[in-house]
Every structure is written in C-alpha cells, then in structure tokens.
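**Paired protein data**
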Amino acid sequence: MGASLLIMLREGLEMAIIVAILLAYLNKIGRHDRVKAVWVGVGAAAAVCVVAAVIFSRVVDEFASSSAEPWVEGFLALTAGSVLTWMIFWMRGHARGIASTLHSKVDAAIERGSKAIAIMAFVAVAREGFETVLFMIGAQEATKRSAIDTIVGGTIGLAIAIAIAIVIYGYGHRINLAKFFSITGGLLILFAAGLLAKAGFELAEAMKLTGLQGDSLWTITSGPFANGWVHDFLQGIFGWSANEASPLRVSIYGLYLVPVTWLFYFSGRVPKASSDRSSPSTTTPAPA
C-alpha cells in the first residue's frame, strides 16, 4: 500500500495542480464558459486511464501466470523504473514553468472553442495518468501486493493530493512545492532503485544466469523485517526483501541509488537568479 500511496500522491498532485492552474487561469481572464470543457477533458482522460489500467493489468497477469513470468516482471520493472527516473528529473527541471506553459497553451486554444480546451486538458491529464498506470502496476508486481491493497493505497494518495491542491488554489494558501517535490523525489528514487534491482534479479533468472545471482546476503524468517507492516512498508518503498537479497540485486540497488541521488540533489540545479519564471513554492492566487 505504501508504494501505491506515494506514487498516487506524487502523480495525483501533479494532475490536480495542472487542473487547478487551468481553472484558476480561465476564471482570472473571465472565460468561465470554458471551465466545463476542462472538466470534460479531465473526465475523458480519467476514463481512458482506468480502462487502460484494467486492460494492462489483465495482460500482465495473463503473461505473469505463464512460463514467461520472469521476463514479464523483469521488463515491467525495468520500464517502470526507467520512466520513473526520467519523470523525477523532468519535474525537477520543469516545475517552475508549468503554470506559464499551461497559460500559453490556454491562450492559444481558447479562441478555437471549447473542444480545443477539452483536448488540451485531456492530453495534459492523460499523459500523467498513463505514467501512473505503469508505476502502479509496476509497484504491484514488485511488492506482490494484492490489487485491493494497491487500489486502497492509490485512492488514499489521490485523496491527499486533491486536498492539497484545493488548499493551494482554492483558498490561496501557500505551500513549498519545491520542498514537497524534493522529498517525494527522493522517496521515488529509492522506489525506482528497488524496481531496477528487481528487474535485474528477474531478467537474470529468465536468462538462466543463476551464477550471477548467488546466495541471498541475508535471510530473515521472523520479526518485523520478515512480516507485518514494517516489512510491507520497507518492501513497498525501498524494495526490501527478507530472503531475496542476492549480491546482484543489492549491487544494482547501490549502483543506481548513489549516483542518481547525487545527480538529483546536487547536480544541475537551476540558480534562482537565473530564472524569471515563478518559483514552485509560490502558487497561483485564487480567483477573486
């Protein structure tokens, strides 16, 4: 549940912020007649993403129950971890310009009618939604949690994300989004490290490269690190395993975690003075 909650909190907040920016800007410029079009696009994107999630989940389950299970789980974990890494760094570099970019797109589309606004909202939300579907299914396969646990965790995360977005844009409060994305980005790096470590483990098994695996560096059969909520939390967020900590898996985890964490926090930061765009720690004021 922890992994799906974190993913949906992060991705859900991004989607909620996008919608809130669109609505706030339309209200600000007095184009209330285009607000309905935004909700049409958002609703259509949500429906398409739900259908895609059901289809993708069934396809994965079908292949995972066959002899191709290691290949399916390995490539799914590899894809989810890679896309998740790209998304984390993309958001770090583009968070400051989200509002101005959306405003420009609204200005370009608004005179073309409600359909153009609806399509713009659909594309913006669906892109985030498809990423979320991939991450959620990857989390479910990586942690071996039930679909119910994944759905419950995702629902809680989405509810929190919507509540934060309402507080930010509905009531004009401020929240340090830079710090929020920095903290959740770090947690997602840990999650991505677990995904990629699992990918290496599964693909080595699929290719019968058992010599690369080696014996587990530890085997824990009882206590909080073997079962219970502590085990589930560590497994969901950090990729912890009580009995599958092969040297290959642990090595991949460390080789990913150390350089990526350094790059995320200490490399390529954009100085505040060099950007004339609004900081992510400030928010679009609530419409008068």
